[in-house]
């Protein structure tokens, strides 16, 4: 049987913001003991992913590159941090993230990417962009502790950020991390 690759469609902030956010996430990880979010770079998911046979990867990427010729860069701006819960596989989990302000350009980019349908993985009914700081293995105790720590909440407010999304990154899982497979520039 031919192998398959799963891709996620994300964008990462430019440097030095990317390194600053990564350092902040690592610090939060040390405090909380949560490491799940560190498998990914700091990012915004732009659409649901894709799973495709290895032999189809070159044509998939070329088709996506052609599709992106009609896509434009989009402003990204955080809109406050949130501590919340979610359910995955019937298990209650905890997450800390920055919400992302929805704007016309970001929604247009998201919709445009959803129009590229080959090998799509699942549906994405509602788009709620965010930048995850901690999730998945964040314990209820650490979740509560971080919420009550005034120094952490002050730093969360001070680390609000914005940038222009000028690329789409196709990331795939290698070992325990998601790594860049292809970077595609936006107009």
Descriptive keywords:
187 residues, alpha+beta, 4-stranded antiparallel sheet, 5 helices, 30% helix
Q: How does this model look, in words?
A:
There is one protein chain. The protein has helices at 17-32, 57-67, 104-114, 140-148, 150-158, and strands spanning 4-11, 44-53, 74-88, 91-100, 130-134, 162-165, 167-174, 177-185. With 187 residues, the protein is α+β, with helices and mostly antiparallel strands. A four-stranded antiparallel β-sheet has the order 2-1-7-8, with helices on one face. The chain has a four-stranded antiparallel β-sheet with strand order 5-4-3-6. A hairpin with a 2-residue loop joins strand 7 (167-174) and strand 8. The longest helix is centred in the first third of the chain and has 16 residues, at 17-32. It is globular. The model has no long low-confidence stretch (mean pLDDT 92).
Topology:
Layout (H helix, E strand, L loop, with lengths): L3 E8 L5 H16 L11 E10 L3 H11 L6 E15 L2 E10 L3 H11 L15 E5 L5 H9 L1 H9 L3 E4 L1 E8 L2 E9 L2
Antiparallel strand pairs: 1-2, 1-7, 3-4, 3-6, 4-5, 7-8
Task: Describe the strand arrangement of the main beta sheet, using strand numbers.
Answer: 2-1-7-8
Count of DSSP strands: 8
Distance between the termini: 38 Å
The helix/strand order is EHEHEEHEHHEEE
Specify the number of helices.
5
The low-confidence runs, each spanning 5 or more residues with pLDDT under 50, are none
What is the gyration radius calculated from CA atoms?
Answer: 17 Å
Shape: globular
